[in-house]
Design brief:
Catalyzes the formation of 6,7-dimethyl-8-ribityllumazine by condensation of 5-amino-6-(D-ribitylamino)uracil with 3,4-dihydroxy-2-butanone 4-phosphate. This is the penultimate step in the biosynthesis of riboflavin. Belongs to the DMRL synthase family. Helix content is 44%, strand content 18%. It is an alpha/beta fold and 160 residues long. The protein has a single domain, classed as Lumazine/riboflavin synthase (Rossmann fold, 3-Layer(aba) Sandwich), CATH 3.40.50.
């Protein structure tokens, strides 16, 4: 299924108190990440979530920031990681994409957190724009919906 064919995500019903979400952004491609941010925030507002956003230098720092947040004093019910990596002329792209995605999953599994991820790994800016547009399918909204679904699941299973 391509992005153009994707169904628009829906906000799930969240039992209990409105969730607290930390949005971790790697705004190297600011316009792309801002587009995903707006869509993610709109999705999170549908369930009354409170959202705190932080920016990091780049995609490589996303898993590090997630782990730092877990060491902090503030409690979050879920996390959304947003970023974009565009393929260049070297293999740097492959290392950053693999390391960042693996790192995010490793932290999520190790600490049992609710994480939605929209780290775009694309060949062109046009592909990123198609996935972060103001209208239609948006990976930021999908990541927020995924995070909310994990929160709903954790609460139903008493894993909070």
């Amino acid at each position: 299924m391509s992005t153009a064919d994707a169904t628009l995500p829906e906000a799930p019903e969240i039992p209990g108190a409105a969730p607290r979400i930390l949005l971790i952004r790697a705004p190297y491609y600011r316009g792309i990440v801002d587009g995903m941010t707006h869509a993610a925030e709109a999705m999170l507002r549908k369930v009354g979530a409170s959202v705190q956003a932080i920016d990091v230098a780049g995609a490589y720092e996303l898993p590090q920031a997630l782990r730092i947040a877990l060491r902090g004093r503030e409690h979050f019910d879920g996390f959304v990681a947003l970023g974009c990596v565009v393929r260049g002329e070297t293999d740097h792209y492959d290392y950053i994409c693999d390391t960042a995605m693996h790192g995010l999953m490793q932290v999520a599994l190790q600490y049992g957190i609710c994480l939605g991820t929209a780290l775009l790994t694309v060949d062109t800016i046009m592909q990123a724009e198609a996935r972060s547009a103001e209208t239609g399918p948006n990976k930021g909204a999908e990541a927020a919906a995924a995070c909310l679904k994990q929160i709903a699941l954790a609460r139903r299973l008493g894993a909070t």
